[in-house]
Design brief:
elongated, 11 helices, 0% strand, 274 residues
């Protein structure tokens, strides 16, 4: 996680907790019975719904999304341009430090197809297939997290119902009612907090990471295919920069003066819309 994200998380989490403290003691919001019902029920439902191996994969993907930095588009473009002109090998050597990164593995596979002499259509087909199933696997991990996020509020309601039943069963006994009310109220609170403060953001992180990596993989595929067709490195650079936002592109736009000179357009014709 970037330092700015971590700072924002700590700051606004603190504000979130302060909101609980303004009108009461923080201990009022802690109830072990409600927490056990919500967490125990959600974990049980998760284990029933998904294979343990699948949950391990989700954990690894989520951990990687927070811990491992992703390469920028400009870095990948520079590596591809270095490969295309073969003037230096720094781009290739720099990959050895991050061999387990998804983007780097995809690049190595793409270069492997290129080195093995595959045709352009074959390279495109192989890499498109790789991207398709990569997206499916990531969407599967995202789906698991969103399902868990749905379980939490549901078991929060179950905890509230349990508390209400206990409260109704103890009508006339003040002690039972006072013990049951916190279970009914805090269970719903726990379910909403776990779902919206943790698991939905986790799913959003994986989705954003997947979109970034798919963009990098698309750049790699187009770059490797261009290298295979022996495209001029200057043209390759212009093509790959199309994937970048205007603020990230190093080249300046051609001035209107040069455009007029190239197409022999006079200022009068331009004003007349000709």
């Amino acid at each position: 996680m970037k330092k700015k994200n971590l700072t924002g998380l700590i700051l606004f989490s603190g504000l979130f907790v302060i909101g609980f403290l303004i009108h009461g003691n923080l201990s009022l919001y802690f109830n072990i019975s409600g927490l056990l019902i919500v967490c125990g029920g959600t974990i049980s439902a998760t284990l029933i719904s998904f294979r343990f191996d699948q949950l391990k994969i989700v954990t690894k993907v989520l951990s990687s999304s927070y811990r491992k930095p992703i390469k920028k588009e400009t870095e990948i473009i520079n590596i591809l341009i270095d490969l295309s002109i073969r003037s230096r090998i720094e781009g290739i050597l720099s990959l050895q430090n991050q061999e387990n990164e998804t983007t780097i593995l995809f690049l190595r596979r793409a270069l492997g197809c290129l080195v093995d002499g595959y045709e352009i259509d074959q390279i495109r087909d192989i890499l498109n297939t790789e991207m398709y199933f990569f997206r499916l696997r990531r969407e599967d991990s995202e789906r698991v997290l969103r399902a868990i996020a749905d379980y939490f509020p549901a078991f929060g309601i179950i905890g509230s119902v349990v508390g209400l039943i206990t409260m109704l069963g103890g009508l006339g006994d003040t002690t039972v009612i006072l013990k049951a009310i916190p279970i009914a109220l805090t269970s719903t609170l726990y379910g909403l907090i776990f779902a919206n403060f943790f698991f939905l953001p986790f799913a959003a992180v994986i989705k954003e990471r997947t979109n970034q990596e798919l963009l990098l993989q698309k750049i790699i595929m187009e770059g490797v295919i261009a290298i295979s067709s022996e495209m001029n490195s200057v043209i390759l650079k212009t093509k790959l920069e199309s994937f970048l936002t205007p603020s990230e592109r190093g080249a300046e736009l051609v001035s209107y003066t040069k455009i007029r000179e190239r197409f022999n357009i006079s200022k009068q014709q331009e004003q007349n819309g000709l």
